[in-house]
Write a structure and sequence with these properties.
The complex is a heterodimer of chains A (about 120) and B (about 240). Chain A is an alpha/beta fold and about 120 residues long. Helices cover about 45% and strands about 20% of the residues of chain A. Chain A is globular and about 45 Å long. By secondary structure, chain B is mainly α. Chain B has a domain at about 30-160: Helix Hairpins (Orthogonal Bundle). Helix content of chain B is about 75%, strand content about 10%. Chain B has four helices and two strands; from the N terminus they run ααββαα. Chain B has a two-stranded antiparallel sheet with strand order 1-2. In chain B, strand 1 (about 90-95) and strand 2 form a beta hairpin. Chain B is elongated. Classes of the chains: A alpha/beta (about 120), B mainly alpha (about 240). Chain B: Keywords: Ion transport, Transport. Chain B: This is V-type proton ATPase subunit D. Chain B: GO terms for molecular function: proton-transporting ATPase activity, rotational mechanism.
Chain lengths: ~120, ~240
């Protein structure tokens, strides 16, 4: 899997606090291809979010993991449910105001479906 | 007739060997599926565990960020603007489970500090602590991401393997068995026909001048024998005397 070896970055889509924390740990990269993190303002358009998600998951080939806040993932849930690729891995993470809810997680839903069967 | 018979026999052996191959393949694939399933179950368990752990870890991390905000003020703008080069990266690694490569991620960390100026005025220690907490949180996240990727790929592979196992079991094997049955019945039929034919000939021979036939056949036989034993076996030549 040589395609996987090129992917070294962690991308983040989230609210201000989450992204700040992740950046502080040192995941951020800014170059001529743009940033690998996106702060979603609650007042901003969902279409921007959709485009960013698409860019991180489909257009860029240097991202290995996409972290997205769960409450923001809720805004583009259909798009996330349609996303089934292995690379980059999509991970829903909790945010400060919104505790983690396993019921909503697309992956966990699949897990539960498989265990339940 | 006998040529036809031979051809059928060859087809029978061919089909039989194909059946054997299909059976071996079936058992191999079933074994592969079982091995994958075992791994899959283990990963499922780990995924659920890791997801729960992530919830806790992220909570702690968010709290430490709140502490930073309290001590050092809002640093989000500063952090977002000064991020240029990643210090935390992931490296892909691979694992082989019965012929399936499962990718995984490993966190790689550089020791340089890009935000050395953040919190310089006040709250530097808290900022540093927050950084460490988040780095640890990301380690958990990376682990979870690799589990999840493995889960997705295994899910796919298991589905494909299952399909193959079922295809062999319900389509290929019955087809081959049917073919063998058909060829066998056809061969039997031919045997019966041949037997019947011989019987018929025998009865005909008995009816019509059998002695006549027999003598002529014997004559032919002896002639053949004589023809076969010529030239070299003709005995000594007479000596030639000048």
């Amino acid at each position: 899997m040589s395609a996987a070896n090129k992917r070294t970055l962690i991308a983040a889509i989230g609210d201000e606090d989450t992204v700040t924390g992740l950046l502080l740990a040192g995941i951020g990269q800014v170059d001529d291809r743009g940033k690998n993190f996106y702060v979603h303002d609650p007042k901003a358009q969902v279409s921007v979010l959709e485009e960013t998600f698409k860019a991180y998951t489909q257009e860029r080939d240097d991202i290995a993991i996409v972290l997205i806040n769960q409450h923001i993932a809720e805004l583009i849930r259909p798009q996330i449910e349609r996303y089934t690729e292995a690379f980059p891995a999509l991970l829903e993470i909790p945010s400060k105001e919104h505790p983690y809810d396993p019921e909503k997680d697309t992956i966990l839903k699949r897990v539960q479906k498989l265990v339940g069967e | 007739m006998s040529e036809n018979n031979q051809r059928e026999a060859v087809a029978l052996t061919n089909t039989k060997s194909r059946l054997k191959g299909a059976q071996t393949g079936h058992s191999l694939l079933a074994k592969k599926r079982d091995a994958l399933m075992i791994r899959f179950r283990a990963i499922l368990k780990k995924v659920e565990e890791a997801k729960r752990k992530m919830g806790k870890v992220m909570q702690v991390a968010a709290f430490s960020l709140a502490e930073v905000n309290y001590v050092a003020g809002d640093i989000s703008y500063q952090v977002q603007e000064s991020a240029k080069r990643p210090q935390l990266k992931v490296k892909a690694k691979q694992e082989n489970v019965s012929g399936v490569t499962l990718p995984g991620f490993e966190m790689e960390r550089e020791n340089s500090n890009e935000f050395s100026l953040t919190g310089l005025g006040r709250g530097g220690q808290k900022v540093h602590k927050c950084k460490e907490t988040y780095a640890k949180a990301i380690e958990t996240l990376v682990e979870l991401a690799s589990l999840q990727t493995a889960f997705m790929i295994l899910d796919d592979v298991i589905r494909i393997t299952n399909r193959r196992v079922n295809a062999i079991e319900h389509v290929v094997l019955p087809k081959l068995e049917n073919t063998i049955k058909y060829i066998n019945s056809e061969l039997d039929e031919m045997d019966r026909e041949e037997f019947f034919r011989l019987k018929k000939i025998q009865s005909k021979k008995k009816k019509g001048g059998d002695t006549d036939n027999d003598t002529s056949e014997q004559a032919e036989y002896t002639q053949d024998q004589a023809g076969g034993a010529d030239i070299l076996d003709q005995g000594k030549d007479d000596d030639v005397i000048f």
